[in-house]
């Protein structure tokens, strides 16, 4: 459970009856546009033919059980469920006790004393990001009505770079357009190169990783708190819940470690009564509190753990050394589908912080 | 407040009566060696003459008010306070309403509606890491008694690299030694080069950033949870509470985004009944749960925001554009003093997760 | 959300698509007997012809979406949903903006700014106790396997008293039997008198209240904490979430205020290595921590707020004074159906405390 | 820790270095009048010669370490400590392993595995209510500035009744006056009778219990939430943290169980645009949410557990049956000193709920 001003319970296992989310503490009376919500969810859903995407297709249409009436939030907990329909458990039969490297098979087995549902990754499955995206889509609509907009794109895949966002003078139109693309990059030429990398990995029964960049504009200054309840901490505590995330950096991030103070410090200036900075190395957050500049962070994703090349592993039931070849349907790069998941994470964290400081 | 299995309240302002911490939910009966605890705290304290360190010296001796009897935890909340003694408020008089770039002066002013204590950074001061280190030192002693050991060192300063930890076959003796060094690096030659960088920054009235590397050995497999209650999330939610942190990566981190699956996946093998991996790209955590391999992460610190070069800023009380020259005592690089702070953060998060899963 | 060692999210509105619960942090591998679970739920369900019960009948069969595999908990969040099927909204049409006295219509309207679902009481409906009972039934099975047994009965209705439990030498067989009764009292003669009171109230278009007594046996000594995290606090924080609850007392409760110390103090003695008390005025809890004696508490329920007699009220939309006659189906006494709800509350609180102190 | 919108950590042991509280999440800029605060604390402090009060006297002057500057809250955690000065440990030497009936000696010993500080009751001591009162006094001043006023008095001692509050048309002047009395009752004649009861108990080396009544006026309608996050739940979760509390009832409470619906329901009416009820059986709360009528509740206190009469007990170290005579200084009735503690609990819970719904 994510346990802040907003509470988010995500439940479900990949091959169980269903998955879903309960969002607690949303303000009442917020309009939720279902079409827009489904469009957001569709960006995460696997697509046949889409670069890097698994062949498994699912309706993934959430059913809202509570918390919404006549298109508006009631203020009571909002619960949505998504049925698991297209579940070919057979594919996973032969790996039931061989730990897939890079997966939580072994660690989950120890943690849950052998009782966890291992089919399709169970509660560890990337499929659990669907309710996370649902929650983030709801929060995003509430934020947009307050003039807050979250932009995301693929920043790199296997080292191929997209143009980064301008986080000082953000181009909101470009940010809106990139979301509508089937392959969300600013520079389509680089996007094609990325897709070549993904296709090469797929053909080699291998996989590749990448980085997602996220920027949130329109957040007023003064949202957050120092130390453990800051904006970074809240974003981090969701982002590290996304499967395959290995790193998170705000503003200039790790590169800041190589700079000097005069290079990194963002000078303030006042223009038309608005306080701004000339650069945005600080990523819109100082002391855990927003500065009014766009919030900016990057998230590193490891290459998909499921690959069809032979790997060394153990049978975790009898502790013997084994060889493993994973069959089945897998994304050779999960980064394109991770883009809306990162957006969702940002939306949830930012709305939660906003509500904590300006009720309603 | 850090609000997990262990609850940690850190209070205080830089120039108030005192600072401190309340640690709730520690197991009873744990021996706490005060000498070892003070030695840990001393590693964070500013030292005259130490590279990059402010000239302000303080006793920084914590007084334990509760939760400890005859050298053992009682199980009741453990509270320690540290008096503020050496506070030369005068130095800060002239910047009371000029926002120092890279600091939380402006964001804190908005957040707290002008009522926050701005003297010496107030509640945002790096001085607040002293009670964090206290808490981490207590947790570290409890972990060590369970065979868990946290190793930390400076990995880089302004681009100068130390030898990284071997996170597959950790050298515990080297890890123990590096803590005792006044400048905690594995390769002293590189440490000298780092100190040259720091001194150059100081002479130029500038500052430099760096990276701290942390490794926790001896954590049993199976500690943690998927999604929002994982080991990474808990570590992240403290680490991003340390002032000046800009990035956090686990295992291979951002570099993983450039690898392929077969390069990044860590094959499992069984040896003497113990499950291990041949490499440790996963940083000891899979699906939010420990694998039994060392937990491994890196933390990026920006260059110290307080520099004496002239900077553009605003007066946040009348919103006018101004020039600022910061006087006073400042670290030209906070990374050396951040090393025990990162260790403390790891100790708190790991002990909290451990207690959540194995009471007592 | 109930936010302790166990986390419990209850969602749903009376006339929405469905209601349900998410239980987080259950131990893995616990067997859940579905038949026993349904039998528990049936005790709360409205029954035609049962004294005091509404005529609305529902299947109320929970569908488990996640967290259970092959009859055992997986350790992942357990979610169950119950569809709303038999919803005759028409009955409620005429009271949509007349505040029913004793109900949350007016307070909910202010709290949710007019956006809450008011049909059938919405999220305030007593129907929401069904997922609470589901959660308590699950927890109860986990407790029973550890030798902990929760006994409940109607202690009084409209002043007619049942025999109280013997909380020093509990009669476990009688406690088990009383649950199986359609009208759960120890003394059937008194039960008949209570039913006469209920029937009289029904005929008079009125309603009556009562008291439920609860006792939990087999809880080991040493579970709980002083001050805010005690056993009483946790029980109270759920019990006061049950609609219509007006009071809660532990052990001798309010009557203790009339006693002297020598009358109220329970002397300890040791027998066969077991520490016991000769009386149980303390209700099995001292300083927030269990003593090993049965936990004992009583819960006061007000008379059902929905009555068909004419009442003074306001139209909360235009703030005019009005007369109200409530039509529709209502329990003239909710106490019989509240009995398993109180049991559920006890189960959840006690299991949560137990897991907090003895993991697994 | 009390873990709601406001977070309250209370630490300390009766004979340790000090006790105190950390209050997190107070709004910034709130004026705190220290004189008024000390006057509040003085009402809880033991007084020589005061009916029922222990002879132990302490300065009990809190030192504020953080969170307050120039008489206003800064918004950072507010920490206050109180030194333990007058600690005659000798008195307790002979009972170190004899469990005092009605105390947490035995349960605490099991819970903390023998490591808890038992001197003077340790963390279980009634002395820990001093920081609770401190916190409540701070919250009370913040509430008063918003027109919210908490009234408390002794409702009964050993069966002798004071006049109850009028919770429909509250007499605020009488409520203010009763606080200033050294023996806080509305009817001084009854107060004298109560003091006779206390004195009789003292002479008999015995003790007596009683009931405290609390009313909070001026709380706007619409504050709270249904189920687990309601106003009752929050009040209960603090009230049951006060030592010696055995029962809590809202509005008509347990007596409601003997009423019919038409007797108990409070009809609404509108007057001058204000919604009111003609009676206040509901205690100002419906569905967990305030109605705008005064919040009203009663708290039952057991007779002081420390009595000097001989009692049966065990030595919890060797599990032998023993006789116990408690020496030392004890209140023969804690109810008079509990009055400001109940007020403090109400203040904390109500302010927390208010801030949750109307930030700032």
From TrEMBL, chains A, B, C, D:
GO terms for cellular component: cytosol. GO terms for molecular function: chorismate synthase activity; FMN binding. The keyword Secreted does not apply. FMN binds at residues 123-125, 287, 302-306, 329. Its cofactor is FMNH2. It catalyses: 5-O-(1-carboxyvinyl)-3-phosphoshikimate = chorismate + phosphate. Reduced FMN (FMNH(2)). Pfam families: Chorismate_synt. SUPFAM superfamilies: Chorismate synthase, AroC. Keywords: Amino-acid biosynthesis, Aromatic amino acid biosynthesis, FAD, Flavoprotein, FMN, Lyase, NADP. Its EC number is 4.2.3.5. Pathway: Metabolic intermediate biosynthesis; chorismate biosynthesis; chorismate from D-erythrose 4-phosphate and phosphoenolpyruvate: step 7/7. NADP(+) binds at residue 44. InterPro entries: Chorismate_synth, Chorismate_synth_AroC_sf, Chorismate_synthase_CS. Transmembrane segments: none annotated. GO terms for biological process: amino acid biosynthetic process; aromatic amino acid family biosynthetic process; chorismate biosynthetic process. PANTHER family: CHORISMATE SYNTHASE (PTHR21085:SF0). Homotetramer. This reaction introduces a second double bond into the aromatic ring system. Belongs to the chorismate synthase family. This is Chorismate synthase. The gene is aroC.
């Amino acid at each position: 459970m994510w346990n802040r001003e907003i509470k988010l319970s995500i439940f479900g296992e990949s091959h169980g009856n269903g998955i879903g989310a309960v969002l607690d503490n949303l303000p009442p009376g917020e309009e939720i546009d279902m079409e827009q919500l489904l469009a957001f969810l569709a960006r995460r859903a696997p697509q046949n033919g889409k670069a890097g995407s698994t062949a498994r297709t699912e309706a993934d249409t959430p059913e809202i059980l509570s918390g919404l009436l006549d298109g508006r939030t009631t203020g009571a907990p909002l619960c949505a469920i998504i049925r698991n329909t297209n579940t070919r458990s057979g594919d996973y039969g032969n790996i039931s006790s061989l730990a897939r490297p890079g997966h939580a098979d072994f660690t989950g087995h120890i943690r849950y004393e052998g009782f966890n549902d291992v089919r399709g990754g169970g509660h560890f499955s990337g499929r659990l990001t669907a309710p996370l995206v649902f929650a983030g889509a709801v929060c995003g609509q509430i934020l947009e009505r307050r003039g807050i907009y979250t932009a995301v794109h693929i920043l790199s895949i296997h080292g191929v770079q997209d143009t980064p966002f301008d986080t000082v003078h953000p181009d909101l139109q470009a940010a809106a357009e990139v979301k509508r693309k089937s392959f969300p990059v600013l520079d389509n030429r680089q996007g094609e190169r990325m897709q070549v990398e993904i296709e090469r990995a797929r053909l080699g029964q291998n996989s590749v990783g990448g980085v997602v960049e996220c920027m949130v504009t329109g957040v007023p200054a003064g949202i957050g708190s120092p130390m453990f309840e800051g904006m970074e901490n809240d974003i981090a505590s969701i982002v590290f819940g996304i499967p395959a995330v290995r790193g998170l950096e705000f503003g200039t991030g790790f590169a800041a470690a190589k700079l000097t103070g005069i290079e990194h410090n963002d000078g303030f200036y006042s223009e038309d009564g608005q306080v701004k900075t000339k650069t945005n190395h600080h990523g819109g957050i100082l002391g855990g509190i927003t500065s009014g500049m766009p919030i900016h962070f990057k998230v590193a994703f490891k290459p998909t753990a499921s690959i069809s090349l032979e790997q060394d592993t153990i049978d975790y039931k009898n502790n013997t050394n084994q060889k493993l070849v994973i069959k089945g349907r897998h994304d050779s790069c999960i980064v394109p589908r991770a883009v809306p998941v990162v957006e969702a994470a940002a939306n949830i964290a930012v709305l939660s912080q906003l509500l904590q400081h300006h009720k309603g």
